[in-house]
Every structure is written in C-alpha cells, then in structure tokens.
Amino acid sequence: MERIMxxxxxxIVAQSMSFFLESKGYEVCAVADRYESAIRSFISYKPDLxxxxxxxxxxxxxxxxxxxxxxNHAFRLIYVTAHGDEQLLKDALGTHPNAFxxxxxxxxxxxxxxQMAFKTKESNHTNVSEHLKDFQTLSKGELRIVALxxxxxxxxxxxxxxxxxxxxxxxxxxxxxxxxxxxxxxxLIVFALEHRLLEEYQ
Length: 202
What we know:
Sig_transdc_resp-reg_C-effctor, Tscrpt_reg_LuxR_C, transcription regulation, DNA-binding, Arc Repressor Mutant, subunit A, transcription, Rossmann fold, 202 residues, alpha/beta, 5-stranded parallel β-sheet
C-alpha cells in the first residue's frame, strides 16, 4: 500500500485530506504541521509521497522541508498552495515536484493528483510539447498579461498597469487558460517559469 505523509498547518484541512485519501485505499502514515515535525515524521515513516503545503507554521516553509529531505531521500511530491508568488514557485520547482495542487481544490482534483504522482517518479512532463505549442498561439498582449501574473499581480493591478478594465483582464485570463489547456493559474505560471517562456517580458 502506498504511504502518504501530509505536511499541512491547518488541522481541519489536514484531517479532511487524510480521511478522504484513506477512504480511497491509501495509507496516511503521518501528518505534520511544521518543519521540525515533518523531518521527524519522514525519518520515522519513510512515506512514498509527500503532500506539502508551501506555507507552514514557524519560520521555515514547506519548500525548506523538502529541500532538506531531498538531500538523502527519494519520494514523490505534490505541493499544495494558494499562492502564485514567483520566487516561491521557482524555489519549489528546484525540488522536482510531481504536481502542484491549487487551493481551494476538490476531492476529485486531490485524488487525480495523487494517482498521477504515483505513476511517475520524476516531475510529470506529460504533454510538455503540446503546452509549448499552445503557448505559441498567445498574442503579445496575452503574454504580457501572463508575465504580470507571474509577478504575482492581481487582475486589478494588471488592469491599472495596462490601462484596461479589470473585466478585460479577467476575460484575457480565461482565454489564456483555455488556449494553453491549463486548469488553473498556478499550473500556467509554473510551466512558464520552468520553461523560461517569458524572459523577454520581464
């Protein structure tokens, strides 16, 4: 049975995630809410997969947990995040995650992410060529909006910078996700950063 460790500082979220995964036949061997307990739990239980929130209680982030564990251990990894901060995502990519799960997520999205993570040992690069091809369909204006999204700007901030309405930005964002076949903004940003697609716009 695949063993999963959850690193999440919101107790209710962690318990909900744990109960759901166990109902689907997975063994949740440990739940930790900060750097120190995560390191101890990993050493004790040796999970096959870590579901890790990027932001945790205490001074250290979930990324720092993974950076430490990656020094001597191999495991599958899914980051859980509600944030699209550029530097955080760059740091996260350096730890070779299998996937990013964006809060708020559904049970089905959680299950699919876990199932896909167990199918691969390394980062999931399925359909990379298709996504790269899709990116080429974006206009310069749309790429500029993606670049501002990568910087962490909201629709309102993007609208102010480009002198267009927030509604127009929201329409562009939906069209960008549709054209590139990403399910959410974090997936789009991670892909753009990983493949250095926006350097001329930054």
